[in-house]
Design goal:
The protein is mainly α and about 230 residues long. The protein contains eleven helices and no strands. The chain has helices at about 1-20, 25-35, 40-50, 55-65, 70-75, 80-85, 90-100, 100-120, 125-140, 145-155, 170-225. Helix 1 packs antiparallel against helix 2 (about 25-35), helix 4 crosses helix 7 (about 90-100) and helix 8 (about 100-120) packs across helix 9 (about 125-140). The chain is flat.
Amino acid sequence: MNSEKSIVTLNSQFNNLNNVGVPKDFCLQVQGICDRMSDPVLTDRWLTLIRKKKFDLSLAKSSLKVTRKYVSKLNPSSIDQILDYKEILPSIGTIRHYRGDDAVEAFISEIISLIEKSLNLVRPITSEQIVICVRIVVSKYHFLTLADLKLIVNNGLTGMYGRVFDRFDVGVFFEWVNKYVEDRLVVSESRHMREHDKVKHVEQKLSNLDEDRGKIERVKELINLKNM
């Protein structure tokens, strides 16, 4: 009985959206996802975002792909690899937008906790410090993805950001993060320059081709004049 009541309520909520100008096909797609998820909190969040016109269906779908299994399987090898797949890797900000604080904080916490499990330190990072790290990441580094965070942790654990001695805390973690962000910016700018050079090269080739065609046409005109 409760299940039938919830379905009726869900239908009513999406019918109301349709009545205020939200396309029916769009409503049906979102309603279908919410029905499969069976998460009233998520449904309310999405309905609110739609009403505020802050909802993108493709981004919402990408955020749903993030699960604990997804996080555990993340194993990026480089910044380049992450940037190659940036279109399908939802940012921390996107996950927060569509899934809420609790969901995104749980995923980030799981990644940061790998440090505590992997390092045998006299003064390891505490659960309270992990919470602080998580909240700073969510507020200040929301443009990163969970794949970025996993790579930061992997790089740090393998000594890329310097040796970790007897302690690991909030300050050390954000030294890793800031170094990574600097490296990511350099790689991103380098990729942008390469793409720019490729475009210029193609444009130059097309320009040369146009010049060659013009020369051919002029030769044809001269030949036609001689034959007259």
